[in-house]
């Protein structure tokens, strides 16, 4: 179903010069019946509150934009023994394991590039992903693309070198 949707997005608004946008978004949620609900930062409120957080990717071009993939972030506390019953009640698959948000984003970027269904030449992301080497590794794996990713101003150096290229003049 996702592959068919990607084909429709590519047909309606795909462009070789397209951009993949990576971001997260939080929703305020009350109660205990939804998967991933916990006290966590909610961007729509600008503070920590009870809610769900998702990481998503969107495709944008001159023809328009569309969300193309998303992952629900399950906070670390959801993997404790105390949450075992809630995971079962919410039908969290046994094979799902804890991931922070940047690896979820990296997985989506890598998958979009490997499938080749939604064309893009560049990617954007905020400092949350830009501060994580695994996200940069996913960007580097997307050969032929450019990543415009924020890094926190306190970033002083990388433990491993980041791949860069120097444009050559014709």
Average pLDDT figure: 89
- Percent range of helical residues: 25-40%
How is the biggest beta sheet arranged? 6 strands, mixed
Strand portion, in percent? 25-35%
Shape: globular
Strand/helix succession: HEEEEHHEHHE
Structural class of the helices, strands and pairings? alpha/beta
Terminus-to-terminus distance: 44 Å
| Total domain units | 1
Question: Which radius of gyration do the C-alpha atoms yield?
Answer: 18 Å
DSSP helical segment count? 5
Tally of DSSP β-strands: 6
Quick structural gist:
With 170 residues, this protein is α/β, with parallel strands linked by helices.
Output the keywords.
six-stranded mixed β-sheet; 5 helices; about 30% strand; about 170 residues; alpha/beta; single chain
Provide structural commentary.
Helix content is 27%, strand content 28%. It has helices at residues 2-13, 84-89, 101-115, 127-130, 133-141; strands spanning 19-28, 38-42, 47-61, 64-73, 122-125, 146-149. β2 and β3 form a beta hairpin. The chain starts with a helix and ends in a 21-residue tail after the last strand. The model has no long low-confidence stretch (mean pLDDT 89).
How do the strands and helices of this protein lay out in sequence?
Blueprint: H1 2-13, E1 19-28, E2 38-42, E3 47-61, E4 64-73, H2 84-89, H3 101-115, E5 122-125, H4 127-130, H5 133-141, E6 146-149
Parallel strand pairs: 1-5, 5-6
Antiparallel strand pairs: 1-3, 2-3, 3-4
Helix pairs in contact: 3-5
